[in-house]
Amino acid sequence: MQLSLQDIHFAYAPDAVALRGITLRIAPGEQVAIIGANGAGKTTLIKQMNGLLKPQQGQVLVGDWDTRRYTVAQMARRVGLVFQNPDDQLFKQTVADEVAFGPRNLGFDAAHTARAVTAALEAVGLPDVANAHPYDLPSSQRKLVALATILAMETPVVIMDEPTIGQDGRGVQRLGEIVASLSENGRTVIAISHDIDFCADHFTRIVVMAQGKIIADGTAEIVFSQAEILAQASVTAPQIARLGAALGLPGVPLHVESFIAALRAKKGET
């Protein structure tokens, strides 16, 4: 499902302008990471996408729905948002009930809901905690439960706010697998993240924000090659790209394979 944002402006107060003329189009099935310093407008932007905030100027379309004409509950059929802090969205007595709440609210029948809950918990690696109270789990697992609540709703658009915070290496790997699986199934995945290495590994398109504006938008290779733009946004390139630059390797290697290929190219190997 396509997202189209046209000339979006939003301010919390006259002296607290968050978005300054954002225009952005995201095609169905894209994997888009939004990066930038704290206060750049990233969270305000994604809240425009699911209708939590409405544009004060401009238009946000999710498919053919104008967010100004639909409630947040209605928008939840199309856009699922996983908050940065899972405690902001967990409130049921068991993990299973938590994950089932969204599908039930959307009108899924009992069998469909059960399948969706099972699939979502398996996707996040937590099938064994279905009967646990969410707040008996460590914060890293609560964050995965919050993600499962959105996966179970089967929305065509999934947005994650700082998904890797608090996750160990296995958790980050699992998140990457989830991003890939969603994309393979035609669902659009958007993430805000300060984890630049995660963005480089799992997102094909990078949007850079600074002071409420988009200052770069393109493939990971192109965006992470623009040192001045990254500096303007107070963002550093991925570690492997910085190592490649320090070694004088051609291009912008973002993965081990491309790093090895660039190293061989520099040495004149085939």
What are the low-pLDDT stretches, counting only 5+ consecutive residues below 50?
Answer: none
CATH architectural arrangement of the largest domain: 3-Layer(aba) Sandwich
**Number of contiguous helices:** 11
CATH topology (fold) name of the largest domain: Rossmann fold
Strand content: 15-25%
Radius of gyration: 19 Å
Corresponding CATH superfamily of the largest domain: P-loop containing nucleotide triphosphate hydrolases
Q: How many angstroms does the end-to-end distance come to?
A: 42 Å
Described by strand count, sense and barrel closure, the largest sheet is: 6 strands, mixed
Helix content percent band: 25-40%
**Overall 3D shape:** globular
Helix and strand content put the structural class at alpha/beta
Sheet with the most strands: spatial strand order: 6-7-8-3-9-10
Mean pLDDT score: 95
Order of helices and strands: EEEHEEHEHHHEHEHEEHHHH
Please report the first level of CATH classification, the CATH class of the largest domain.
Answer: Alpha Beta
Oligomer: single chain
Number of strands: 10
Structure in a nutshell:
The chain is α/β, with parallel strands linked by helices. The protein has 2 domains: 3-233, Rossmann fold; 238-270, no CATH class. 38% of the residues lie in helices and 23% in strands.
